Model the fold of this input.
Amino acid sequence: MLDEGKRLGWIRHRDELRKLPVEKQRQLQKLTATRIARLGAKVLFVDTHLFIRTGEGFWPGLPFEVVRALKPTHLILVEADPRDILSRRRGDKTRYRDRVTNEDLEGELSLARSFLTVSSTLTGAPMLIAVNRQGKSGEAARNLARILKEAAR
Done:
């Protein structure tokens, strides 16, 4: 979506995506999903958010048209403790973040699981949840690889 948005001249950096009107985000999602689907890759990871906080409310990162175009075989949510997320965001000076509280993030994690459930229901793809603990990204990657190996059996 970032590349498509830049190509169209709608944005300059990734944090402008969520500030676009929802209709423009919808157009970018469709363009991106279509481009990804055309790749025809045997194995492909699509890194996205299950929802985006916009001025118009929470916008699904995988609306029906997008999951239908992508035809995922598996859906994986990588989540972390809200306190860790806040700490990581505060330490990242490269981004333009909205201010959120620990309670906001707890609600967003619950919402992400709900969006994951809906996407799984729409596609028939199994859903998995991997935890990325602070300072343990290697462990999270190994667990994710293990989960995927088991799913491939």
The chain has a mean pLDDT of 87.
